[in-house]
Amino acid sequence: MKKNIYEELTNKQLLKKKSFLKGASIGLGIVFLFVITILVYLWSENKLKNDSVGSFIPVFILPITFLPLLINFKLINKEIKSRNLTKN
User: 84 to each of 14, 56, 78, how far by Cα in Å?
Assistant: First the structure.
């Protein structure tokens, strides 16, 4: 079984990494909502009728980019809970 990589970090480094991942997830979430909004607008204006489905693959793949981020966020929260640190 793999060792938890966050066990080796100090408390300060762990909380810093948590805040970084939180900011990154918020940023990716905003980008994802922005892209979905643009697609809905273009679809409602019938400007997408000549585009192929292949041009939308990056939009459908975008939520998959959240997966490693959420896994690491879960591991950090688990380590913070095991150390009884306060949540900032």
Answer: 12, 44, 10
For 5-52, write each residue's pLDDT tens digit. Answer: 888 889 999 999 999 999 999 998 898 889 888 888 887 787 777 777
Tell me the three state secondary structure of residue 85: coil
Cβ-based burial of 24 (10 A; exposed 0-12, middle 13-18, buried ≥19):
middle
**Distance separating alpha carbons of residues 81 and 54, to the nearest angstrom:** 43
Question: In angstroms, rounded to a whole number, what is the distance separating the alpha carbons of residues 33 and 50?
Answer: 23
Task: Show Cβ contacts of residue 58 under 8 Å, excluding neighbours closer than 6 positions.
Answer: none
Global pTM reads: 0.75
Q: What is the rounded CA–CA span in Å between residue 6 and residue 76?
A: 7
The first and second tokens of residue 68, run together, are 């490693």
